[in-house]
Amino acid sequence: MKEMRVLLQNQGKENMSDAAVYIENGGYEGLKKALEMEGWDVIQTLKDAGLRGRGGAGFPSWLKLKFAYDTQSEDKYIVCNADEGEPGTNKDRVLLSCDPHSILEGMAIAGKAVGARKGYIYLRAEYPQIVPIITHAIETAKQAGALGENIFGSGFEFQISIRSGAGAYVCGEETALFESIEGRRGEPRFRPPYPGIQGLFGKPTVLNNVETLANMSHILRNGVEWYQNIGTPTSHGTKLFTVIGNVAQRGVYEFPMGINLKELIFDVCGGVADGKGLLAVQTGGASGAIINPFQIDIPLDIDHISASGGRLGCGTIFVIDDSNCVLDIVRNNIEFFSHESCGKCVPCREGTRRMYDLIQKICAGNGTVKDMLTIRDLAETVRSSALCGLGHSSVVPVISAMDNFPEVFESHLDGDYCEKCHMQRRVMKHG
Amino acid sequence: MKQEIYSHTTSQSALVRVAEISARYRNRPDKLMDVILAVQKVVPSMAEDVAAVIAREMGLMQNEVYSFITFYGLLSVKEKGKYIIRMCNNAPCHVRGARAVMDAISDTLKIGVGETTQDRRFTVELCPCLGICDVSPAIMINDKTYGNLTYDSTQALIKRYIREDV
């Protein structure tokens, strides 16, 4: 099966952070078209194309733009969420390093659509190597007239600056990200007001994932019809998939939405590494569902995965081989959420901690059936009452594993020997 | 109660540099992250006296600076070594043998997670995903990343840092 490279079409080409090289390769054509259109027409184009957010939730991108478009504020902001914290995901790093201008172009298009003059790229601190690439891209784009005060002579002004994170997963949540840019602890805000009305610095703000913004450039450049013909009826376009874990060929791949998960793992990525068997697959990063090998014959699009209880999320496919234990993976996932919970709301702060303790107890062979019921009860509380997406999604791996792998939990309840969990009894402690 | 780790005494010359950096962004609280990232490069610890200078120069309250630093995983009020080794402990590295890498680090440096060697050269920390899962298990030493590690290659890497001061 061959990849379909739209977002990654410039991967491997040299000097892509140079605006001149990007323009040679057809870059900024989308922005030029957007500059000749009315703001609402740009939003209508994205609506017709059916672009949905690529960060995890799959929210229709045009709606976010519409909320900000409808407000009367003088100052509006476009924010690019490059705080790629989901464990196992590195598509944004690849995209930012091989085609940074497609993101700048997408931000300028979004800016033109809603009437914003300022954009921020919130970049996670774990990617210091990306900073010079984006800085160079912004500078050369200004020289080429694609950013700055008078873009391509249209009179439209758009500036972009970079803001750094400092290692907080929760800052990938939009309101926490705003708090962080404003110079405070990255704790999510209560909503409403929604960011489209009152976001960064209290102004209407549109926040999008790196990949979503890159998609906007390509939609404007190539047209709605072209975009609609890629993917499935409800999820258009291509998607970047990060395939990682115990798989032969790890990496970032681009395919149309709706590619079969089984084919992606076995035909494209060469199957499980080192000749081992497949134990489970987790789609969507640490906050995604863990499924059985017999469940992987499914198309990867936003609605299909949601309907089956999981989430496509950021497109991460985590392959787990049979030398592992599902419970050990769940323990690792919930430990991550418990560590990354910001502590602002009680359900998430305490709930993730308690779930971790109980999973740990079951791992150690000391669990009871009552603990299983308590986990379900806790999970339901956290899912329904946590303040932000971190809490809501932290329960997905736990519950999906309990539903899909009941026999694993039972054998641990019985106190059967588990090599993996036994090894992990020397618990890693956070510093 | 004042924590011992927060009461490190910073040299006067370093505090002057901290003041220089912070004074550029007076009344710009949104620049706090940039200031702290820059300051972290010139002081050994983001201690109380450093926070006081940043707060004074930027027009913030000292507790705002303190709460900011203690929130973020890559910032800390503790004194750190010259090289900060960050080990990913998430599932993608975990299933690829992160345990062996962690063992190699602690066996070589004789310190555990969250600790600093006595000569103040190495600090070992756990860190959520570094975003280089295509080469997991991976670690980050200051700004450099290293992937596809095994027990032996990790040990060789750490030894190179010990010997050569990379």
Provide an overview of this structure.
The complex is a heterodimer of chains A (431) and B (166). By secondary structure, chain A is an alpha/beta fold. Chain A has 18 helices and eleven strands. Chain A has a five-stranded mixed β-sheet. A four-stranded parallel β-sheet of chain A has the order 3-2-1-4, with helices on both faces. In chain A, strand 2 (118-123), helix 7 (130-143) and strand 3 form a beta-alpha-beta unit. Chain A is globular and about 75 Å long. Chain A has three domains: 19-228, NADH-ubiquinone oxidoreductase 51kDa subunit (Rossmann fold, 3-Layer(aba) Sandwich); 238-321, Ubiquitin-like (UB roll) (Roll), CATH 3.10.20; 326-423, de novo design (two linked rop proteins) (Up-down Bundle), CATH 1.20.1440. By secondary structure, chain B is an alpha+beta fold. Chain B has two domains: 4-71, no CATH class; 83-164, Glutaredoxin (3-Layer(aba) Sandwich). Chain B is built from seven helices and four strands; from the N terminus they run H-H-H-H-E-H-H-E-E-E-H. Chain B is elongated. At the A-B interface, strand 5, strand 11 and helix 13 of A face helix 2, helix 4, helix 5 and strand 2 of B.
Helix content class of chain A: 40-55%
CATH superfamily of the largest domain in chain A: NADH-ubiquinone oxidoreductase 51kDa subunit
| Order of strands, widest sheet of chain B | 2-1-3-4
> Which oligomeric form is depicted?
heterodimer
The share of residues in extended strands of chain B comes to 5-15%
Total DSSP helices of chain B: 7
Q: What is the average per-residue confidence, as pLDDT of chain B, rounded to a whole number?
A: 92
Strand and helix order of chain A: HHHHEHHEHEHEHHEEEHEEEHEHHHHHH
Radius of gyration of chain A over all CA atoms, rounded? 22 Å
User: Strand order, biggest sheet of chain A?
Assistant: 6-5-11-8-9
The biggest beta sheet of chain A reads:
5 strands, mixed
Order of helices and strands of chain B: HHHHEHHEEEH
| CATH second-level architecture of the largest domain in chain A | 3-Layer(aba) Sandwich
Class based on secondary structure composition and strand pairing of chain A: alpha/beta
- Bulk shape of chain B: elongated
